[in-house]
Amino acid sequence: MQLVNVRVDSRLIHGQVARVWTGQLGAERLMVVGDKVSKDDLEKTALKLARPTQAALSILPPDRASNNIVQGRYADQKIFIITREPEALVKMVDAGVPIKEVNVGNLPSGEGRLQLFKSVGVNDEEIKAFKELDARGVKLYHQMVPNDPREDFMSELNKRMEK
Questions:
Q1: Does the global pTM surpass 0.90?
Q2: Structural domains in the chain?
């Protein structure tokens, strides 16, 4: 099993993920991870329709996704993990999933959210999860599409929190 990308994106599977990221990475399986999405039949149907044809799709809660990865269920596949819940990634790291880097691609802006990048706003729960990932040695960066430069996520978060 090779984790080709781990991305936090509130939109989950959309044009950039389905066409640009999946193709560029050679991903063979999109793994959408989250407690809420894994229980929402309507959203699961929409994700199945959005799935690029060249990739398999799993929609799982963090514990089941972690168990499948740790048990080697996808041993011969290139996996692209996508979640809108950074807390899910903390659970996965704690369960032994070898996540080394996380691409924070898109989280909504709005009231009660700290704006970090044009397309990334974070709330207190997400900030806590990102700090926990950082403390576990996971490198966090922001990159919208593969051709964009990577921007240091934690550096920007720490700078914005000082203000």
A1: yes
A2: 2-162 (3.40.35.10)
